[in-house]
Write a structure and sequence with these properties.
It is a single chain. The protein is an alpha/beta fold and 399 residues long. It has 13 helices and 16 strands. The strands form 4 sheets. The chain has a 6-stranded mixed sheet. It is globular and about 55 Å long. The two termini are 14 Å apart.
């Protein structure tokens, strides 16, 4: 596992930030120039260095989103002991990876072409940076991976669907190893999308107080950026080579609301969790911690909390990591799975920072507050829900 996130690019850094109960949200001064843009808040990824072998030639088809995805994947492959392993080019390794969009700057180049009636600025690699499957394809080319590619461009469930579809590919015997995850870059144009829906936080003068999922005074989401990669592998194959195993994916549920593009459906959220539990052959009581989606939007938090209460009840600890690092869109499912696994392995879960007064429209759950909580458990559930009514639930087992 590995990630690039607003909280840091390794677990030690992330853990330290969580222990401090301090978020990574900041005001982006440059965004004040956009007339009508209400939110000037974002959570940029922590700085990372570009290794020397990331040359102009090897990165010419990468925008920032693909670059972060590729670097996170290199770190994860190294963590798995598979960097440079022949299995990557054998056809037995595949990729399930996504982002909500490609790099917005590349799309701007095509828009400028139409506006200026000139192709200046559009190159042979512009589309490769813009396309929705840019992260998956660039990972494949950079590491020479020759198995199946499943691009998961499903907004906020891109990363979790990547993990789920990778799990299913291995479970079905189609691949031995899968690179799974998601990535997203922070861009003002994506902020504007949510701004037009009145779904963004406008606490511009107090970035440390927002987002505040499940709170009475929540006023919307804050966008972040990053990339998360998990290397999934057939368990027998991993054990045979003496691999370091962090956790096991034991359940995955995904479905579609089939009702509305942007209005969440609590019943179908509930159904996705039940699908994951059924896949894992577990009862709700086996889940020791729920990592919530928790976007801090009015409708989203209310629907998610009701769905979680209906399935899990009010005795299982629940917290969201978006209050710390914003909504990283295509990356959130992977980053949150990585961090949930690490918290499970450490026997400690982060609190809901900024949650001071549970909103009356949110269901009664065991919301973790304060300084975090010691939680020793065998299973955690990580949930994500996306525009378009796409719902996912992952169940991860402590190794």
């Amino acid at each position: 596992m590995a990630g690039i996130s607003p909280l840091g690019n390794d677990w030690a850094s992330v853990h330290h930030r969580l222990l401090e109960c301090r978020n990574a949200v900041q005001r982006i001064a440059d965004w004040a120039q956009y007339d009508g843009l209400n939110s000037h808040l974002g959570a940029p990824a922590a700085a990372f260095e570009l290794p020397a072998h990331y040359s102009r030639k090897t990165t010419r088809s990468m925008g920032r989103v693909a670059l972060m995805a590729t670097i996170a994947t290199e770190w994860a492959l190294a963590d798995a002991g598979l960097l440079g392993d022949p299995i990557l080019k054998s056809g037995r390794t595949g990729i399930a990876y996504g982002s909500a969009t490609g790099s917005p700057d590349a799309l701007e180049d095509f828009t400028r072409m139409v506006w200026n009636k000139s192709r200046d600025g559009v190159s042979a690699t512009t589309y490769l940076k813009m396309m929705s499957h840019t992260a998956a394809v660039n990972i494949g080319v950079f590491f020479g991976i020759t198995g199946r590619i499943i691009p998961t461009s499903s907004a906020c469930t891109s990363g979790s669907q990547g993990i789920g579809f990778a799990y299913e590919s291995i479970k079905a015997g189609k691949q031995t190893v899968m690179v799974a995850g998601g990535a997203e870059e922070l861009d003002v144009r994506e902020v504007a999308i949510f701004d037009t829906l009145y779904a963004t936080s406008v606490k511009n003068e107090a970035p440390e107080t927002t987002p505040r999922a499940f709170d009475r005074d929540r006023d919307g989401l804050v966008l972040g950026e990053g990339a998360g990669t998990l290397i999934l592998e057939n368990r027998d194959h991993a054990l045979a080579r003496g691999a370091k195993i962090h956790a096991e994916v034991v359940g995955f549920g995904t479905n579609s609301d089939g009702t509305h593009v942007t209005f969440p459906n609590a019943e179908m959220m509930r159904a996705s969790m039940e699908l994951a539990l059924d896949d894992a052959k577990l009862t709700p009581g086996a889940i020791g911690y729920v990592n919530a989606h928790g976007t801090a939007t009015d409708q989203g938090d209310a629907a998610e909390s009701r769905a979680t209460a209906a399935v899990i009840g009010a005795r299982t600890p629940v917290s969201t990591l978006k209050n710390y690092m914003g909504h990283t869109l295509g990356a959130c499912g992977a980053l949150e799975a990585w961090m949930s696994i690490e918290m499970m392995r450490n026997g400690w879960v982060a609190p809901n920072v900024n949650l001071e007064n549970v909103a009356p429209d949110c269901a009664a759950l065991d919301y973790v507050v304060g300084a975090g909580r010691r939680v020793e458990c065998e299973y955690v559930m990580s949930n994500n829900f996306a525009f378009g009514g796409i719902n996912t639930s992952l169940i991860l087992r402590r190794n």
